[in-house]
């Protein structure tokens, strides 16, 4: 598996491009940076994006989606519960799988930061959007966020993954761009919460200290 990372967009956003490392078929995770940023890599590596995986529909993560869709008109826009309407839209449900070359991508519905938040698991890579970052979790300050729901999503679906799973978050907010799950838990007070109430308390403290 090959992964290319592109930083930019609204707030140190990260867009990812990946393939199985053998064929030309590829997938893009989030349309956060202009097409001109990743197009040279697509062309140099002779890649053909067939899937555009949307971690959630906050504007910064879909800012350039129309531009991507126009450049790759046969690409499926894969999004949880049909929360966006684009040509070639593919509505996902929790646990759905998506083929990209010889890779199998599993969509994990992880509501909390938003109701359509989705993480994409591919081999030992987890594209986590704004559900979990290096050193902390996503925030729950928007209208449809839910801190308790976020806790359940993280503890039931993400912290149960193998400890060598590598987190590829939606923003470059930490000391490194990516991190193994085990190391992330060790460095994050939020991920070490004792229970749901403790997580809510720690999230409140985090917001007050910003």
Short key terms for the protein model shown above:
26% helix, six-stranded mixed sheet, 210 residues
The radius of gyration over CA amounts to: 16 Å
According to DSSP, the number of beta strands is 14
Proportion in helices:
25-40%
What would CATH call the class? Alpha Beta
Low-pLDDT ranges: none
Q: Let me know the average pLDDT.
A: 95
Question: How many DSSP helices?
Answer: 6
The secondary-structure class comes to alpha/beta
- The CATH topology is Metallo-beta-lactamase, Chain A
> Could you say how many structural domains there are in total?
1
Largest sheet: 6 strands, mixed
Distance between the first and last residues' Cα = 37 Å
The CATH superfamily is Ribonuclease Z/Hydroxyacylglutathione hydrolase-like
CATH architecture descriptor name: 4-Layer Sandwich
Task: Tell me, briefly, the overall form.
Answer: globular
Percent strand equals: 25-35%
Q: List the helices and strands in order.
A: EEEHEHHEEEEEEEEHEEHH
Sequence of strands across the biggest β-sheet: 1-2-3-4-5-6
């Amino acid at each position: 598996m090959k992964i290319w990372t592109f930083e930019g967009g609204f707030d140190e956003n990260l867009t990812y491009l990946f393939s199985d490392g053998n064929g030309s078929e590829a997938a893009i995770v989030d349309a956060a940076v202009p097409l001109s940023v990743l197009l040279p890599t697509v062309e140099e590596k002779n890649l053909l994006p067939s899937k555009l995986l949307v971690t959630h529909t906050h504007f910064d993560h879909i800012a350039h989606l129309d531009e991507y869709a126009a450049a790759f008109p046969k690409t499926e826009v894969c999004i949880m519960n049909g929360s966006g309407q684009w040509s070639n839209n593919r509505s996902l449900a929790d646990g759905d799988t998506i083929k990209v070359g010889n890779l199998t991508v599993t969509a994990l519905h992880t509501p909390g930061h938003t109701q359509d938040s989705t993480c994409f698991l591919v081999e030992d890579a987890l594209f986590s959007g704004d559900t979990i970052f290096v050193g902390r979790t996503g925030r729950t300050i928007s209208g449809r966020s839910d801190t308790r729901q976020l806790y359940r999503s993280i503890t039931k679906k993400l912290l149960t993954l193998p400890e060598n799973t590598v987190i590829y978050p939606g923003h470059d907010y930490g000391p490194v761009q990516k991190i193994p799950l085990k190391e992330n838990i060790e460095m994050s007070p939020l991920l070490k919460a004792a229970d749901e109430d403790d997580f809510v308390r720690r999230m409140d403290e985090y917001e007050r200290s910003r």
